[in-house]
Amino acid sequence: MAFTAAPTAAGVPAPDRLSQFETDFAGKRRRARRAWGVGALIFALLFGFSAWIGDFFRVTQVTMPDGSRDWRWIIPAGIPRLGEYIVQTFPTLHWDTFWSDFANWFWRWKIWLSLLLETVLIAFMATTLGVAGGFLLSFPAARNLSPNRWVLWLTRRFLEITRTVPDIVWALIFVFCFSVGPLAGILAIGTHATGALGKLYSEANENLDMRPLEGVRAAGGTWFDQIRYGAVPQVLPNIVSYTLLRFELNVRSSSIIGYVGAGGLGQEFRIAMSFQEYTDLSALFLIILVTVIVIDYGSEKLRHKIIGLEERT
Amino acid sequence: MSLTPAQIEAARARAPQAFETPLSLRMRRIALWTGFALLTGYCLWAFDVSPLRIWTGLGRLGDVLGFMFPPYVWKSWAEFSEILKGLGETLSIAFLGTVLGAIVAFPLSFLGAKNINRLNVLRLGVRRGYDVIRAFETLIIALIFIRAFGLGPLAGILAIAISEVGTFAKLFSEAIENTSTRPTDGVRASGGTRLQQIRFGIVPQVNPVILSILLYNFESNVRSGTILGIVGAGGIGFLLSDRIAAYKWDEAWSIIFLIIALVYVIDYFSALIRARIIGNWEGVK
Fold first, then answer.
1. Which of A146, A286, B217, B229 is the most buried (most CB within 10 A)?
2. pLDDT at B285
3. Domain check: are B165 and B28 in the same one?
């Protein structure tokens, strides 16, 4: 053992212990540095490779100020174009003719408002669908509640598939099946929400206190009775809070899902993009931004109120 | 031993709510459910949802599901390399988007943390800025970048980076706010400047949290990276929407299952990395 030497009178370690420490420390430092170096190298390689795949080093043709064409790297060439594009989306608002300019900016407001209503209603219906589906499937998908292993496995795989496939891909599929319109959007967002909510709910179920369920079983309750009177009252606050969060996410999803033809404001984005109605884009941005902020704020207030109520009783 | 009626009466007097819900609560519930039913009914009417439409749609969905079998298998290298390139693009979009977003968000997050930035006005302003960035959908940002940088993965990378700046800055600054002041006090006591307090007192505390946020968001960005291609911002989504538009359902389903497999693999590896690097860290949460 290297640590048998007694400390000297002043509490200073003996020289051999000190040198032992020094070598140990140096070794540890060297190993740490080597690990860092290897990690940084792997990271740099990944970064470089992804940057190469991601077109960072592509060159593109740009028009120079004197009208000639020249080759430039894509990022420095694109940034001025991006700036121009964003500037074009700003409406011309003059102070003295503010209201007519404003009306000009939001010239399609009647259509947009009805589409906004459609967007929110799509989100509402999709949330309802997702809550219903996720709630029903969350009990067979919870390890502690599932009636048997096969049901557990099947529901879990089903929930995984529905939530891994993005809602816009579901929309592409459902637009084919149910034709263009809000129905496809509802089903698409609802399917995705079923998977996402089913996972969250079933995790809430797995954290249940099992004693109430045992009580119901002891009193002769069936599996359904156990779920109904033992599990549901316990998970209800969690469910409400996840549902409100999901509603916010669904409003965002439904605002863009129209891009593939599934109803809501997204289709106006597509129209404005293809007709190069730049100021429409900023107007649509504003509409969605305000809606999302209002819904975020409202559901946060509601959630706090509900959770607060639960804590008091 | 059974209960006598008198005992039941006594229990009812002690806890009336266990036997009957009060009228006001019942009325509120009825009102809530009626409102819900009316709204649902209105939606069904407004969106023209009829049983017939659902039925025909489900029939076609059944057809589409039927096309899953036999699943399409890419035989030649030319076909297969295209799919592989799409997957690689999706991964590089998610990776670079996450990394670039984090690089920009890290310094910004200190501006939004209560224990670093003591100027209330500036801090709250910066925080609203994060919220505004998060309010924009990644897909819409991608559409704008496509105009500037052309079709391809670059637009997708920048779109994810921008939207992640808002998310990361918020999450990082919350992590910074949750740090303990004792390490900072120690650095100050031994004469450290403000910058050194941050570097040696706060950064080591938040590093594991930041790493776990990064891994988690990388996973979620792989998911969102798969759809950016639908609007033309590169990745596997372009191939998928292309196959669906051409009604090549068997190939589309194969791509969907490939995406699911990819997400699985990434979940697995990031869980591995998280366990390796962070372990069961019980520091700042």
1. B229
2. 43
3. no
Using a CB-CB distance cutoff of 8 angstroms, which residues of chain A are in contact with residue B223?
A: 164, 166
Determine the pLDDT at residue A8.
52
Cβ-Cβ contacts under 8 Å, A297 against chain B: none
Residues 287-306 of A with CB under 8 A from B: 288-289, 292-293
pLDDT in the model for residue A313: 43
Task: Look at residue B65 and tell me if it is in a domain.
Answer: no
The ranges of chain A with pLDDT < 50 are 1-2, 312-313
Considering the domain architecture, whether residues B186 and B276 belong to the same structural domain is answered as yes
Q: What is the distance in angstroms between the Cα of B10 and the nearest Cα belonging to chain A? A: 22
- Give yes or no: residues B49 and B151 share one domain: no
Q: What is the pLDDT of residue A1?
A: 44
Q: Which CATH superfamily is domain A107-312 in?
A: MetI-like (1.10.3720.10)
Low-confidence ranges of chain B (pLDDT < 70): 1, 279-285
Domain annotation covers residue B6: no
- List chain B residues with CB under 8 Å of A85: 144, 147-148
**Substitution target from A117, A168, A245, A293 for chain B, most B beta carbons within 10 A:** A168
Please report whether residue B62 resides in a domain. no
Residue B282 pLDDT: 52
B37 vs A: CB within 8 A = no
| pLDDT at position B92 | 92
Domain extent, residue B257, equals: 77-284
* Secondary structure of chain B in HEC code, one letter for each residue: CCCCHHHHHHHHHHCHHHCCCCHHHHHHHHHHHHHHHHHHHHHHHHCCCCHHHHHHHHHHHHHHHHCCCCCCCCCCHHHHHHHHHHHHHHHHHHHHHHHHHHHHHHHHHHHCCCCCCCCHHHHHHHHHHHHHHHHCCHHHHHHHHHHHHCCCHHHHHHHHHHHHHHHHHHHHHHHHHCCCCHHHHHHHHCCCCHHHHHHHHHHHHHHHHHHHHHHHHHHHHHHHHHHHHHHCCCCHHHHHHHHHHCCCHHHHHHHHHHHHHHHHHHHHHHHHHHHHHCCCCCCCC
Q: Nearest-CA residue of chain A relative to B39? A: A121
